[in-house]
Amino acid sequence: MAKVKKTRRASDRRITSKEVADLAGVSFSAVSRTFTKGASVSAKTREKVLKAARKLGYQPNVHARSLMTRRTELIGLICSNFDNPVFMEVFDLFTRRLQMQGLRPLIANLSSGQADDTLDTLLQYSVDGVIVATSNLPADFAQRCRRANLPVVYAFGRPKAPGAANIISSDFLQAGRLAGDLLQERGYRKIAFIGGPTTTVSTGDRLAGLTASLEANGLEPHTTVYGNAYTHEAGLSLMRQLIRTGGMDAVFCGDDVVALGALDACREAGIRVPGDIGIIGFNDIAMAGWSAYQLTTIREPIADIIGTAIDRVIELINQPQKKPKTVLFDCSAVIRNTLRPLV
Amino acid sequence: MAKVKKTRRASDRRITSKEVADLAGVSFSAVSRTFTKGASVSAKTREKVLKAARKLGYQPNVHARSLMTRRTELIGLICSNFDNPVFMEVFDLFTRRLQMQGLRPLIANLSSGQADDTLDTLLQYSVDGVIVATSNLPADFAQRCRRANLPVVYAFGRPKAPGAANIISSDFLQAGRLAGDLLQERGYRKIAFIGGPTTTVSTGDRLAGLTASLEANGLEPHTTVYGNAYTHEAGLSLMRQLIRTGGMDAVFCGDDVVALGALDACREAGIRVPGDIGIIGFNDIAMAGWSAYQLTTIREPIADIIGTAIDRVIELINQPQKKPKTVLFDCSAVIRNTLRPLV
DNA sequence: AGATCATTTGCAAGCGCTTGCAAATTGCGT
DNA sequence: ACGCAATTTGCAAGCGCTTGCAAATGATCT
Asked: What share of chain A has pLDDT > 70, as a percent?
């Protein structure tokens, strides 16, 4: 970055509380107090200050304040799945909910760069807490946060590494079971599974749920294949492969984008869904409802997860000694047209 | 939010430069200097400091620093189109590119709340500059930024209000013309237009471009209809309407999501694309390339726009007196299967 | 009016850092 | 070994704000 200019033009400066104080004819701690809620100021002074502030266009400087309060109202938001449409909803909700609580997200885009820098940056900005909304995160991240005394909660997934952590997520096992039940009660028996990267816990859990549901009836997954990412492309090619092999009558996709890819593979192969093969996804992204797809899928309660994650991180900020906790939400089925009707 | 705990446990505190200085046996300005690039420190002291810092896990406090440097390295990023898939790519690029320049985005999600608070918040956090990546923004936003002495650049659209502003965008007129040319050289003559909200400048410009292209051959748009948002739903119902009316042989959609909706409307009506009707979109979102759609569309050079917008805002931060400037990028065609081949 | 208590206010000491300045150190030529 | 210039260093004065404390003001009751 270019060198900072030294010359400090008058216009460059922002209004300070001193200036407001002068205009209002009060001490500058009075200004500070009218802007810190809960502080002791008479209605009269507050009025004077507010008027002066308005006139000058004064805005208290959060950074200066944070030096004393040790609060920045900044929450580090760690993301990486910028290629999955579900992220749009997640992101929208996170930024809005945080805003509503008077907090601001400081985004760390993990797709680029190393995770190490990421934590350093968050530390430099003294974020009050961190919410992790990605799964491909170095295992020791939580540890490092703890060492730095930084509250951290995981949303939408749990860290691979074992050990206590604050986790707010949907119950992937239950989701997998739900998918399995749904499929079976519609008469499907030879159920294949298309998962995401084998390294992600979420994929494993969903498969485990499916397997559990099948085992209850003495069945087991017909085939399981994995893509190296939750993408349309992966779903497309994996489904083509499955079609070539054949033998299954339904497939549970670990993610909607993958399911849509699978659906497109069927379309091009002339396979009818749900006539020939049933398909069920996970996430309920917007496109799943588009008329071209009408994908039956499992929906996680995104808003609940996000709301709870935010509440939890606030709680931890105020009471850092609180014990780690895991909250799992049940998922629900969204029935559309890629599964045949109940038998 | 709950009241801040008063008690300040030792563990609560972050390491300060003083502590590093003590451990390293140097003055604490030495610490500061080793962390400010371009400062004068001998290799030996820097080594000592770095070692101590590493041992203690020290990270300089950006907020304290910003008090003196008058730089926060924070850029306000104003967004609102969290429902359009194109946003994912935009957002990913913005956050990454900013990160690469040593800047951090402070997101303002305009979907909720008033724009007034938004600017106030950005001011409180003393962002160094603002990038507006949304079009539905109160007209006076730029004015208010100027009054507050805040560099602001508009990316992906220009403010409705006239007046000088920094605008980095694609050339919607050229894009519209390109679409028109493409359609005509493939023999389409009765071309309809599906736009977004009539209030957005972008829609108007795209239509103007199309019209210009048609006029060159003595034609004019066959029909123009507008949705109240750039959504699949809007495209679907608008296209159904168009189909009912009939008479056109092609349609230019102001946005890809709309185009996909239109495509689905054709599919359900049994209309063949591009056989019966040609369809062209705008944006080239990921789904446009999915095998179910294979949408021919116009692509804006998103990465260029974002890169330039960032460069521009940095430029303005360093030289606030720079005159406003508009940079428009040409769009290009992405030919897939929703237009019939060249005649 | 005077005494008593609750509020409100200003003062000043920080918060963790940068930076101009002058003193201390270093390198180098002779 | 000595002198001089170029570096390096520590000191101290901020940056804009919060907050404990004590002084000042206001309210309330005899």
From this structure: 94
Q: Is the pLDDT assigned to residue B326 strictly greater than 70?
A: yes
H/E stretch holding B299? strand B296-299
Q: Comparing C-alpha atoms, which of B182, B181, B180 is closest to residue B221? A: B180
Interchain pair B83, A83: CB under 8 A: no
Sheet holding B326-329: strands in order across?
A326-329, A166-170, A152-155, A129-132, A74-79, A104-109, B104-109, B74-79, B129-132, B152-155, B166-170, B326-329
* pLDDT tens digits, one per residue of B31-85: 999 999 888 889 999 999 999 999 999 999 999 999 999 999 999 999 988 889 9
A56 vs A15: CA distance, rounded Å? 7
Nearest chain A residue to B35 by CA: give it.
Answer: A124
Find which of B37, B109, B111 to mutate to test the A interface (most A CBs within 10 Å of its CB). Answer: B109
The amino acid at residue A68 is M
In this complex, is the C-beta atom of B326 within 8 Å of any C-beta atom belonging to chain A?
Answer: no
What are the tens digits of pLDDT across the range B266-304? 999 999 999 999 999 999 999 999 998 999 999 999 999
Distance CA A20, CA A54 (A): 9
- pLDDT category of residue A110 using cuts at 50, 70 and 90: confident
Q: Is B25 on the interface with A (CB under 8 A)?
A: no
